[in-house]
Specification:
The chain is α+β, with helices and mostly antiparallel strands and about 180 residues long. The protein is about 30% helix and about 40% strand. The chain has one domain. Strand 5 and strand 6 form a beta hairpin.
Length: about 180
Amino acid sequence: MALVIFMAISPFLIPFPMQLLAWLFALMLATHPLKMSMCGISYQNETLKLHYKFFQDDFQVALETYSHRQLNFSKPNKPTSNVLSAYLEANTEMVVNGVKVEFDLKNYLLDENAMVNVMMEGKIKGLKAKNTFQLKNTILFDKFPEQINMYMIDLLGDKNPVSARLGKKFPMDTWVVPYK
């Protein structure tokens, strides 16, 4: 019910590209035919912040296969945090203006919609008016070849992000993203 209410008021809270993704995620919660993750990237105080959203069932299968152990997402714990950090580090890479960004896991939680939310941060200095972002992402491709990983890059904080879609055939891409 809360999801229905949120979706009804979302046009007033969320910019249009994010609305489309929110509606798509809401539809997938009922049927879950697509394999998809979403990551929002923002910048503040020389810190890139990543907020991933994964379907719990898909993400748990991939992480348990990767680690050969059962994991519990119901509340943050050290074993799950360690596996999650190692898996994301092994399956993602971000280079900004020629410099590889190292990310640290800040938190993760399982929300009421069976989505695992993962928050990571990485330090980066000196963004320019135009920045080259190179992303490589193979998250969940080993278990789900049809997986799609969506990115929304919003460095300006103006709710007008650059969007990206990475899949198994094209797990890496490069974009020029404005700042200031």
